[in-house]
């Protein structure tokens, strides 16, 4: 996924009220940028670190910038939680992911029972639901999820289990928007219920696919799959 507009460089002053951040631009001016990430953002917040923003000209927007990434540990980390859905949708549509390259129809935001999954794909042989999550939390060279308790995430896993039992293919896809990790596992210390539900999903045939994404000011693209550790 290439950014459609040139990003604006700055440095992080602070993040506050979950969805707002103060950014100092290179000309010394200070702007408020929208932060799409509602989690704790633990291990991807560092005051004074370089950041990139997308500028917006929409007069209806309260903020004129969206915070896209931050430079920590010699790597860009993508913090925009809307990016992973686009990445995986385009990759499934364009048949880039080996495990998901067989579908002729690919749609976004498809409802199943009382949930809405990020991606639905099908061919003549099977129908597949794919839920996508953004991962930024790092612990000892391992990416983990979530970075805060997520009852919504727990619900998605339980619905994936139901879909699998109903005959659908069910996939939980984690986009890790940082490259300084070697594997992926659930954050049992942060949300033990989510971790237990993920194991239950795995045991019931839900496929777990964690992928590292290469993040840069020009583009973000899926790079490689990493090992999933229950």
From TrEMBL:
Boundaries of every Sugar fermentation stimulation protein C-terminal domain copy: 83-218
InterPro entries, per database record: SfsA, SfsA_C, SfsA_N
GO MF annotation: an example: DNA binding
Residue ranges occupied by any SfsA N-terminal OB domain in the UniProt entry: 13-79
Xref: Gene3D superfamilies: 2.40.50.580, 3.40.1350.60
Domain of life: Bacteria
Family named by the database record: Belongs to the SfsA family.
Name of the protein: Sugar fermentation stimulation protein homolog
Organism from which the protein derives: Plebeiibacterium marinum
Higher taxonomy: Bacteria, Pseudomonadati, Bacteroidota, Bacteroidia, Marinilabiliales
Gene that this sequence comes from: sfsA
């Amino acid at each position: 996924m290439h950014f459609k507009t040139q990003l604006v460089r700055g440095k992080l002053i602070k993040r506050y009220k979950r969805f707002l951040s103060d950014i100092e631009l290179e000309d010394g001016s200070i702007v408020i940028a929208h932060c799409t990430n509602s989690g704790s953002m633990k291990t991807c917040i560092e005051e004074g670190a370089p950041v990139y923003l997308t500028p917006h000209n929409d007069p209806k927007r309260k903020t004129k910038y969206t915070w896209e990434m931050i430079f920590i540990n010699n790597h860009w980390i993508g913090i925009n939680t809307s990016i992973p859905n686009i990445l995986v949708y385009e990759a499934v549509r364009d048949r880039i992911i080996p495990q998901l390259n067989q579908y002729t129809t690919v749609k976004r935001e498809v409802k199943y029972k009382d949930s809405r999954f990020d991606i639905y794909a099908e061919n003549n042989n099977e129908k597949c639901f794919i839920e996508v999550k953004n991962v930024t939390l790092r612990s000892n060279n391992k990416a983990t999820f979530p970075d805060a308790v997520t009852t919504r995430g727990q619900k998605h896993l339980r619905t994936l289990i139901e879909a699998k039992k109903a005959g659908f293919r069910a996939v939980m896809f984690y986009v890790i928007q940082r490259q300084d990790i070697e594997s992926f596992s659930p954050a049992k210390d942060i949300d033990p219920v989510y971790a237990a539900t993920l194991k239950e999903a795995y045991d019931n045939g839900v496929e777990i696919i964690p992928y590292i994404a290469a993040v840069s000011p020009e583009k973000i693209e899926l790079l490689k799959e990493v090992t999933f550790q229950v």
